[in-house]
Write a structure and sequence with these properties.
The protein is mainly alpha-helical. The protein has six helices and no strands. The N and C termini lie close together (about 5 Å).
Length: about 210
């Protein structure tokens, strides 16, 4: 049932949601570039960290607006959940990049590069879907994108399993197993958090019905 309100809802939240999605795409694109062209690693990781800081700023602005807004366009919990979910993806992107720097990775694996591609594909789906939430005329189209995100997340699970299985074929290389297991974990967590974004978007769709 639509909520009754006597004042117009604050539409600025959608602006910030879209800025968050754009920031996510940029972070994911930088990660994919890092894993496909593993040069200037320090500089590329620093740029990803900058995107992570910008994501934190966006979340702060959303929470601040939520504190100041009497009638938000969505339930307050939904707004917080969506903002945090997008930010969590960027956090995991930054964590994965930082781990590769920390562990002095010489060359990314094929599975890591594929996971970066999947994260970018998920981010692009989020970026396209986010503006669709502004209007009841387009909000049902969000489901098409969330379904694709779920499919991509399932693929990421399989890619991660393949990567771990290959590491286990060389039990003598313990350090390699330890570092890549942790890196794969951060990359897979990023895809899991993309699915959290999809779930939060689906809640918005349901609330609009």
């Amino acid at each position: 049932m639509p909520r009754f309100s006597i004042l117009p809802a604050e539409e600025g939240f959608y602006d910030w949601f879209e800025k968050g999605a754009t920031n996510l795409v940029e972070a994911a694109r930088l990660l994919s570039d890092l894993l496909h062209d593993f040069t200037n690693v320090q500089s590329k990781v620093s740029r990803i960290t900058e995107q992570e800081h910008h994501g934190d700023f966006i979340v702060h602005e959303i929470y601040d607006m939520l504190h100041r807004t009497f009638i938000p366009p969505l339930d307050r919990e939904t707004i917080q959940r969506l903002a945090a979910a997008v930010d969590d993806v960027v956090d995991n992107v930054e964590a994965a990049a930082d781990l590769m720097l920390l562990y002095k990775v010489e060359k990314p694996t094929r599975q890591a590069a594929r996971l970066a591609e999947i994260i970018l594909a998920c981010a692009e789906q989020i970026d396209v879907a986010m503006p669709l939430m502004r209007s009841k005329k387009t909000i049902q189209e969000v489901r098409r994108h969330t379904i694709e995100i779920n499919r991509l997340e399932n693929e990421a699970d399989q890619v991660t399993r393949t990567g771990i299985a290959e590491l286990l074929e060389h039990p003598d290389q313990l350090f390699n197993l330890i570092r890549w297991k942790e890196i794969y974990g951060a990359l897979e967590d990023a895809t899991d958090r993309c699915e959290d974004v999809a779930d939060a978007m689906n809640v918005v769709v349901l609330e609009s019905a």
